[in-house]
Amino acid sequence: MKVIIAETAEEMSRKAAEFFADRIRSKPDITLGLATGGTPENMYALLAEKCENEGLDFSHVKTYNLDEYAGLAPDHDQSYRYFMNVKLFNNLNIDKANTHVLSGQAEDLEKECAEFEQKIKEAGGVDLQLLGIGNNGHIAFNEPGSSSDSRTRVVDLTESTIKANSRFFENENDVPKQALSMGIGTIREANEILLIASGSGKADTVQQTLEGPVTEDVPASLVRDHDNITFIIDKEAASKLEGEY
Ligand code: GLP
Predict the structure, then answer these.
(1) Active-site residue 156, yes or no?
(2) Dihedral of the CA atoms 193, 153, 162, 102 (nearest 10)?
(3) Is 146 helix (H, G, I), strand (E, B) or coil?
(4) What is the pLDDT, as a whole number, of residue 124?
(5) Is residue 93 annotated as part of the catalytic site, yes or no?
(6) How many angstroms separate the CA atoms of 211 and 29, rounded?
(7) Contact 119, 64 (CB under 8 A)
(8) Nearest CA-CA partner of 75 in 49, 101, 94
(9) Confidence of residue 131 (pLDDT cuts 50, 70, 90)
(10) How many CB atoms lie within 10 A of CB 45?
(11) pTM (two decimals)
(12) Cα torsion angle, 212, 216, 220, 224, sign
């Protein structure tokens, strides 16, 4: 486990974008696992800039997203497919056919999850998986209590996640109560993981993830023993860490 502490959220984004750019340059047909949320937004803008100004080439890159809200159409402005299109894919020279986001509107959601797993396998697995972290320690939508061998499935969102994510919706009742999410077992199969976090609001959960017990109560702690995992966190998110990094 490697921990990099950035001075600011801006520096976290720059370092994370450079980390991704480096892996894409070394393997142009890389398979990326991608995340949504406020944390990666700036990093995605920087990747788009690198594509436009530095010729970072996404034409052979494949992507698989961590999760999607159940029930939201791909063009709903809070769906994760919409987020990814607007924040990243529309701004890259990527072939949209190579970008995969679970469908929240599939007729049979469990079947959609099983097929997503199959597609990842057929692509040869994820080379580099990006993770954010929820206030309660969730990764993707693996809420506390998710097991370390969980697979892509339909999950119920906790009250605290619904509350946290309601900031993006007009009102709290509009937040879907369920989502489709890669499992922790699925995430752990990636060759490499990069987890990013910023802001003092994440300080407790980052401390528990890195220094607390490995427990289903803090789902992110279940990936920290991955043999190729890097954390890039800003100073505020690192403010409660006790160890030296
Ligand atoms: C959502 C996503 C997670 C993300 C988390 C944190 O719940 N499902 O993948 O890591 O939010 O979001 P933020 O980066 O906005 O704090």
Answers:
(1) no
(2) 70
(3) coil
(4) 97
(5) no
(6) 35
(7) yes
(8) 101
(9) very high
(10) 15
(11) 0.97
(12) positive
Query: For 18-31, what is each residue's pLDDT tens digit?
Result: 999 999 999 999 99
Measured CA to CA, the distance from residue 128 to residue 130 in angstroms comes to 7
Which atom of ligand 1 sits closest to the CA of residue 66? Answer: 9
User: What distance in angstroms lies between residue 168's CA and the mean position of ligand 1's atoms?
Assistant: 11
Q: Which residue has the tokens 């922790």?
A: 184
Two tokens, residue 56: 């970072």
Instruction: State mean pLDDT over 134-160.
Output: 97
Query: Average pLDDT for residues 92-98, to the nearest whole number?
Result: 98
Active site annotation includes 60: no
Q: CA angle at residue 130 from 178 to 59, to 5 degrees?
A: 105
Question: Six-digit token pair at 110?
Answer: 């469990």
Rounded CA separation 81/63 (Å): 12
CB contact at 8 A, 222 and 186: no
Q: Which amino acid is at 68?
A: E
7-11-14 Cα angle (round to 5): 160
Q: Which two tokens stand for residue 22?
A: 């480096």
CB contact at 8 A, 181 and 151: no
Tokens for 101, please give them.
């986001």
Catalytic residue among 67, 68, 117, 189: 67
Alpha-carbon gap, residue 219 to 69, rounded angstroms: 19
- 197 alpha carbon to ligand 1 midpoint, in Å? 10
- Beta-strand (E) ranges in the chain? 2-6, 31-34, 62-65, 67-69, 99-100, 128-131, 153-156, 178-181, 192-197, 229-234
DSSP element (H, E) containing 42: helix 41-54
